[in-house]
Amino acid sequence: MNTGSPAPPRDAANRATGHHRPADDRRPVAAPPAERLARGAGQHVLVVAGDPDIAELLTITLELAGYRISLTGTGAEAVARVVERRLDLVVFDTDVPDQRDFDRERRPELPYRPPVLLLTECESLGRLVSELGPGRRDYVTKPFRIAEVLARIQVLLRHARPGRPGGNPLHCGDLVLDDTVCRARRGTRTLDLTPAEYRLLRHLLVNPHRVLSKEQIGRHVWGDHRGDNAIEQLVSRLRRKVDRDAPALIHTRRGFGYWLGGTGAAA
Q: Which whole number is the average pLDDT over 228-233?
């Protein structure tokens, strides 16, 4: 009897490797060795994916990473599962066939809104799967990397742990970030942030006056280091939104990284 862990089917694995991929191929990219991947602890995750290949790859990978998996192929079935039982997290591929066809009038009240990780080609979090409610959400763009999916799942589950302090927005001066509604504002001005900008701002707020390196920022925001240029562009976009028409709160320590705070020196 073979007691070893099952390996992803060759066709699904090959699709994830990126070998011989056409320019418009939006399927998953290879994962690094398993020992470097973020792992679960038996949490119950619902995978919602209409594409059989994506469903198979996610199901096998997440099971190997230590999660209990349920699978459904439509958004309507996903809502029914959430009504039936308490799930720890939902991984939702927004290409499911009925994503745009939910009947809002007949949508049931959900007794509990689990965190949701969206797999999507869209960059706007606010437009995605509002039917699953205003709870904590994040997204990964296609073609997704398994390592990034696992890292984002881990962050969502960490923030949703029972007993985690809630209801207290993060703030620095007149900059406020409220995790309960995933919104941020500077004074009376609401900040229109992408999910990546939101994650960066939150990371800066929980580490006030502390210099964060580009590598630290990349690993927190995307699950890996994307390169200096990507980090610089992300910080620049966030800085324009946060510090527009107001005293600067986001600062650069040249050669070291970025920090958030007033005009005092960073730690």
A: 89
